[in-house]
Structures are given as structure tokens and as C-alpha cells.
Specification:
The chain has a single domain, classed as Rossmann fold, CATH 3.40.50. Helices cover 56% and strands 17% of the residues. The structure holds P1-(adenosine-5'-P5-(uridine-5')pentaphosphate (UP5) and magnesium ion. Pfam families: ADK (PF00406).
Length: 191
């Protein structure tokens, strides 16, 4: 028999653009499974295994964990869920991620579209620094934030451009109140 493929919506945008916040709302409204690559990496780090130090290094430096690690965490989460439709939040973030995903996952997934939260840098920085007062995230500080922005601009924007060239990007103005952003998101899901 033929296995039906997993459906994937990639959710991209700068640090603090609101990916996680909006994904939670999408889950409630449309019943996708939300997989945040960053959350999966933080959970793996918390196990304290052999990958923990490497992951922590990348997170505090705003650099990107090699795709073999991230992609296998995503793959396992997808398989374990028993579900079919996924929001993959914060991945693919660079050329290495894109190539690795295509090599490992193209046969068993269909990328439906890319939801792109377009947020001005100053809003991103302000949101993350504010969250840093209580989040306990080791990258919600000024120095890591600068690095995260550089990585996003230099490495992630080209991936968004690539998907744009494929006609797959649905763009959201993310510097609006949460409910207004979600109105745009609903439009994006119904178009
Ligand atoms: N907030 C949200 N929406 C708002 C709105 N409309 N108006 C006002 N405030 C709003 O939101 C961030 C903050 O803003 C919150 O306090 C929220 O209340 C408020 P959130 O929804 O968390 O935004 P999000 O885009 O999810 O921000 P996040 O910080 O999670 O984004 P990053 O992309 O930086 O973080 P992620 O967890 O994806 O990755 C962290 C690190 O992990 C990366 O830098 C990298 O080192 C590593 N990583 C990899 O190596 N590979 C991967 O594939 C993924 C991650
Ligand atoms: Mg997030």
C-alpha cells in the first residue's frame, strides 16, 4: 500500500516575530501539530546528553545547529505523533538545513506553503529583550540578539527568498497586535 505523505507548513520569520505565539493559535483553529525546531533543540539540550553542549553553543551564539541533528528530531516527532499535518516552526534556517531536509524528507513530505512573519528588526529586538526578563532563555539578551539578527538576515532570508521563487510564501505583517496578526494568518490558511 502507499503511505500518504506528511503535509508541512514551514513557519519562518525573525527572532521574536511571533512564530510560536501564532502557531499555538493555528493549532486551536486548524488542528495542525506544532513542532518548534528551537523547542525540540532546547528539550534535547535539557537531557544533557552528548549533544547538549553543542546545542547550547549554537543557541547562545545565534548560529545554526547542523541539520542532521535538527532534522532527525523533527522526523522523530512527526513519526511519533501519529498525525499527518505539521507546522514546522523556525526551520529551515539556512542552506545546510534546506539541503538536509530535501535529502532526508522530500520523499515523505509535501511542503504546502511557507508562512512568513515579516517583522521589523526593532520590534524583534524589543520583544525578545522584554521576554528575557522572565523567559530564562539563554539567547534573550542583547549580545545573542545581535547575533540572531545577523544570522537571520544573512542565512535565513535567502531561504525565504528561495521559497518565494517557488511561489510558496504567504507573507504576514507581524508588527501588529496578536489578534490582527492572526486575522492575516487565517486568510493565509484559507487562500
Ligand atoms: N509577541 C508575539 N507576538 C506579538 C505581537 N503581535 N505583538 C507584541 N508582542 C508579541 O514571541 C516572542 C515574544 O513576543 C513573546 O514574548 C510574545 O509574547 C511576544 P514568540 O511567539 O515566541 O516569537 P518567535 O518568533 O517564536 O520567537 P523565538 O524567539 O522563538 O524565535 P527564534 O527564531 O529566535 O527562536 P527559535 O526557538 O526558533 O530558535 C532559537 C535558536 O535555536 C536559534 O537561534 C538557533 O541557534 C537554534 N535553532 C537551530 O539551530 N536550528 C533550528 O532549526 C531552529 C533553531
Ligand atoms: Mg519560537
Amino acid at each position: 500500500f502507499i503511505m500518504s505523505k506528511f503535509n508541512v507548513v514551514f513557519v519562518l520569520g525573525g527572532p521574536g516575530a511571533g512564530k510560536g505565539t501564532q502557531c499555538e493559535k493555528i493549532v486551536k483553529e486548524f488542528g495542525y501539530v506544532h513542532l518548534s525546531a528551537g523547542d525540540l533543540l532546547r528539550a534535547e539540550r535539557a537531557k544533557g546528553g552528548k549533544l547538549a553542549d553543542m546545542i547550547e553553543h549554537h543557541i547562545t551564539n545565534g548560529s545554526i545547529v547542523p541539520v542532521e541533528v535538527t532534522c532527525s528530531l523533527l522526523d522523530k516527532a512527526m513519526e511519533d505523533s501519529g498525525k499527518q499535518d505539521f507546522l514546522i516552526d523556525g526551520f529551515p534556517r539556512n542552506e545546510n538545513n534546506l539541503q538536509g531536509w530535501q535529502k532526508a524528507m522530500d520523499d515523505k513530505t509535501t511542503v504546502k506553503f511557507v508562512l512568513f512573519f515579516d517583522c521589523p528588526e526593532e520590534d524583534c529586538v524589543q520583544r525578545c529583550l522584554e521576554r528575557g526578563l522572565t523567559s530564562g532563555r539563554t539567547d534573550d539578551n542583547e549580545e545573542s540578539m545581535r547575533k540572531r539578527i545577523v544570522t537571520y538576515t544573512q542565512s535565513t532570508m535567502p531561504i525565504i527568498k528561495y521559497y518565494e521563487s517557488q511561489g510558496l510564501v504567504r507573507q504576514i505583517k507581524a508588527n501588529r497586535p496578536i489578534d490582527e496578526v492572526f486575522e492575516q494568518v487565517k486568510q493565509a490558511f484559507s487562500s
